[in-house]
Amino acid sequence: LLQEDLENGEDVATCPSCSLILRVIYDQEQFMRDEVIAEPLTNKELVKC
């Protein structure tokens, strides 16, 4: 699982070669508390290639 998966609420991963299933147990509010969301850039330039 990636951090992005956890942010989207996905907390279960399965092993592709066996029947192992992993569930991540965490406090989503605590996990997202220190998350910094970048503001979108307002000044964009288009460059012709």
Write the layout of secondary structure elements.
Elements: H1 3-7, E1 12-14, E2 21-23, H2 28-33
Antiparallel strand pairs: 1-2
Keywords: Iron, Metal-binding
GO molecular function, one term: metal ion binding
Protein name: DPH3 protein
Description:
Pfam families: Zn_ribbon_CSL (PF05207). The structure is a single chain. The protein has 49 residues and is of the alpha+beta class. It has a domain at 3-33. 22% of the residues lie in helices and 12% in strands. It has two helices and two strands, in the order αββα. The chain has helices at 3-7, 28-33; strands at 12-14, 21-23. A hairpin with a 6-residue loop joins strand 1 and strand 2.
